[in-house]
Amino acid sequence: MLYDKRWEPKLPAETIEPWRQCLLDAADLLKREGWRTNSMGALGEPKCVLGAIRYSGHSNEVRIRAEEIFQHHVGMPLAEWNDCEVTFGWSVRRALRKAARQ
Questions:
Q1: Residue 4 domain-assigned?
Q2: Residues 6+ apart with CB under 8 A from 23
Q3: How far from chain centre, in Å, is Cα 53?
Q4: Is the pTM for the entire model greater than 0.85?
Q5: Total domains, the chain
Q6: Residue 16: what pLDDT?
Q7: 46 lies in which domain range?
Q8: How distant, in Å, are the alpha carbons of 11, 21, 35, 64 from that of 45?
Q9: In this predicted structure, what is the pLDDT of residue 1?
Q10: Residue 10 within a domain
Q11: Are 42 and 54 in contact (CB under 8 A)?
């Protein structure tokens, strides 16, 4: 019998809430461009957590919601958390991904 995998019905893609995707995109951006303290960074440069969320490519409403949720997740203002509480970029990326999965 003639068969081609392309003929199988397409399953709907799993949807993710935009603020969750924003946090995941911010983590990916930090992995690609690097993490830093005391500066939001610019395109192509290392960024703080706020810079990564803001450069993630999402709308203002989504970014604001993502910042609010992530701030609640870490329990303090994000700029203070980024500059004083975190010592490694990998821990920032891990926290972003954890908050997106909550």
A1: no
A2: 53, 66, 69, 70, 96, 97, 99, 100
A3: 6
A4: no
A5: 1
A6: 87
A7: 16-101
A8: 38, 21, 9, 22
A9: 66
A10: no
A11: no
Query: Running along the chain, 102 residues long, what does each successive block of 10 average in pLDDT?
Result: 76 80 95 91 89 92 95 93 89 95 90
Which residues on adjacent β-strands are paired with residue 35? 47
Confirm whether 1 is domain-assigned.
Answer: no
* Other residues' Cβ atoms within 10 Å of the Cβ of residue 56: 22
Q: Could you give the angle at the alpha carbon of 85 between the alpha carbons of 26 and 45, nearest 5°?
A: 40
**Residue 52's pLDDT is what?**
94
3-state secondary structure (DSSP) of residue 77: coil
Distance of CA 57 to the CA centre of its chain: 10
Query: Residues, the chain, total?
Result: 102
Q: Return the structure tokens found at 27.
A: 């983590």
Sign of CA dihedral 89, 35, 87, 26: negative
